[in-house]
Hints:
The protein is α+β, with helices and mostly antiparallel strands. It has a single domain (4-102), classed as Hotdog Thioesterase (Thiol Ester Dehydrase, Chain A). The protein is 15% helix and 44% strand. The protein has one helix at 30-45; strands at 4-10, 48-59, 68-75, 80-86, 91-102. The protein has a five-stranded antiparallel sheet with strand order 1-3-4-5-2, covered by helices on one side.
Amino acid sequence: MSDFFTHSIDIPADHPCFEGHFPGFPVFPAVAQLSLLTEAIAILHGGRCVIAAIASAKFLSPLGPGATVIVELRQRGDNSIDFVIRTAALVVAKGKLTYRMVEP
């Protein structure tokens, strides 16, 4: 397995998290961005995972409806990764976390 993985995800304009977050300026919440990471880690390892700890996380740019994001993961040990969430134009979030694989 490579220590670097990328996964592209389309954020639908009608995603439920945009309702009320925020009226007139919809923003994809940070917690939803973290769920994109667990989705990518699960694909990488072929199972289900949860975030065990976040060593650092910076949310640098708002992410709006209809965006296509690229999740980049770099494995840094057994259950540790560096991550970047980006669009074609900019870095949206970056950080380091540990995860745990769980039974389905």
